[in-house]
């Protein structure tokens, strides 16, 4: 540490220099991220309220009430009524909270198990490791949809939870939530939907007349949903969210925090100190965009997605393995060869996509920062790369 502090100008100069290594969303190169540049109003509001701490809600009663209001509003967007919710660092923490709930609600099960598709996010493996839960993974079919019979066969007397994904990490696909609901019906199994990515796109796709399978609280068996403002909600990083149908869960299994200045409080979080600014910013983003604002952003993402799909279909040697439901496009080879070489060549040309070796996929997420011109250049390069393989 320096003996004397530096002038602000010097600090800014040093940071500019050191952070040159970072990619920028507006460069167009970031084609494999589920996050994006938050909208300006969100950044402004976040900066204004950066010191609010929801780890001590009794000190920030206004922020705590705002969180409740926001959760109810989002719950309604997700087809529910009087939904409770709370905001997290992201989808991983929300999924961890969901698996803890599933385990805690079934103290009678000594060796708890959770059934989930193999395409579910890695955060469930982390959560299962922490919570000592056995994961039972459901196979996929050739079209990357889940094998529902296999799902059913994995449910047994030790199953405390079932997971459906609404917007898979690799392909943006939506699992058959109603069918999973039927399988677990009447079995006292907690049913959690991971819509970390899909949560803030599916309701708007429906408005825009895209085909969207049922995935939310409108399906009666659904108990909880993960949905992340910092993905398609265009919120501040980090903002995730967990939404619950049954209010009594908080009282039943919430952690009681006894020492706070604001008095005893209960929460479901892993963290203590928790940003209020990110939540206030998301409240403002929702108020500012409204349904029409989200529809507009998502329409543009979907137009760009259609353009990308069309271009990829014209390129020989590669194909799209599953019909995209949202703005996530997988690319694989036509002859089944590994996508690793294509991915490497793309990286050399500064295209940063996602790579899923287990499914032999390259993934492009057509986020709001991705422009048609970026996709055009990307496809031109992709065409050259595949020609020279
Ligand atoms: C479906 C899904 N769930 C959960 C997560 C984890 O979210 P986070 O990185 O915000 O913890 C991701 C991340 O991409 C995801 O795609």
Could you describe the 3D structure shown?
The mean pLDDT is 97. α5 links the parallel β2 and β3 (134-138). It contains 12 helices and 13 strands. The protein is globular and about 65 Å long. The protein folds into 2 domains: 8-36 and 291-387, Aspartate Aminotransferase, domain 1, CATH 3.90.1150.10; 41-286, Aspartate Aminotransferase, domain 2. The chain starts with 7 loop residues before the first helix and ends with a helix. The protein has a 7-stranded mixed sheet with strand order 1-7-6-5-4-2-3, with helices on both faces. Strands 10-11-13-12 form a 4-stranded antiparallel sheet. It is of the alpha/beta class. The structure holds pyridoxal-5'-phosphate. The site of pyridoxal-5'-phosphate (PLP) has 15 residues, from α4. Pyridoxal-5'-phosphate binds next to α4.
Residue fraction in strands: 5-15%
Order of helices and strands: HHHEHEHEHEHEHEEHEEHEEHEEH
Specify Rg, calculated over alpha carbons. 22 Å
The CATH architecture of the largest domain can be named as: 3-Layer(aba) Sandwich
Taking the alpha carbons of the first and last residues, their distance comes to 51 Å
Q: Which strand order does the major sheet show? A: 1-7-6-5-4-2-3
Report mean pLDDT, rounded to a whole number: 97
Briefly note the structural class of the backbone. Answer: alpha/beta
The outline comes out as globular
* CATH superfamily label of the largest domain: Type I PLP-dependent aspartate aminotransferase-like (Major domain)
């Amino acid at each position: 540490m320096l003996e004397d502090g530096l002038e602000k100008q010097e600090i800014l100069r040093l940071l500019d220099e050191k952070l040159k290594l970072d990619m920028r969303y507006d460069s167009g190169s970031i084609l494999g991220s589920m996050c994006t540049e938050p909208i300006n109003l969100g950044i402004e509001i976040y900066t204004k309220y950066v010191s609010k701490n929801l780890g001590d809600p009794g000190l920030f009663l206004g922020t705590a009430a705002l969180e409740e209001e926001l959760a109810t509003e989002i719950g309604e967007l997700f087809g529910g009524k009087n939904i409770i919710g709370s905001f997290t660092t992201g989808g991983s923490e929300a999924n961890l909270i969901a698996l803890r709930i599933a385990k805690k609600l079934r103290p009678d099960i000594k060796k708890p198990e959770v059934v989930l598709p193999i395409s579910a996010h890695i955060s469930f493996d982390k959560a299962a490791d922490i919570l000592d839960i056995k994961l039972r993974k459901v196979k996929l079919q050739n079209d990357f949809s889940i094998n529902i019979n296999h799902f059913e066969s994995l449910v047994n007397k030790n199953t405390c939870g079932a997971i459906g994904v609404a917007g898979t990490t690799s392909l943006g696909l939506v699992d058959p939530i109603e069918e999973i609901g039927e399988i677990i019906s009447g079995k006292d199994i907690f049913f959690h939907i991971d819509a970390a990515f899909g949560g803030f796109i599916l309701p708007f796709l429906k408005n825009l007349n895209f085909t969207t399978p049922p995935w939310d609280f409108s399906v009666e068996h659904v108990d909880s949903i993960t949905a992340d403002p910092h993905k398609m909600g265009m919120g501040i990083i980090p903002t995730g969210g967990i939404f619950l149908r049954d209010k009594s869960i908080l009282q039943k299994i919430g952690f009681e925090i006894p020492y706070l200045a604001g008095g005893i409080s209960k929460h479901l979080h892993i963290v203590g100190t928790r940003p209020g600014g990110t939540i206030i910013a998301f409240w403002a983003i929702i108020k500012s965009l409204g349904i029409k604002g989200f529809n507009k952003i998502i329409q543009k993402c979907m137009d760009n997605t259609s353009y990308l799909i069309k271009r990829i279909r014209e390129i020989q040697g590669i194909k799209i393995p599953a019909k995209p439901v949202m703005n996530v496009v997988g690319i694989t080879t036509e002859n089944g060869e590994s996508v690793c070489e294509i991915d490497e060549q793309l990286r050399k040309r500064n295209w940063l996509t996602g790579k899923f070796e287990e499914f032999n996929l390259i993934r492009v997420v057509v986020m709001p920062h991705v422009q048609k011109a970026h996709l055009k250049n990307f496809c031109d390069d992709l065409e050259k790369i595949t020609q020279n393989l």
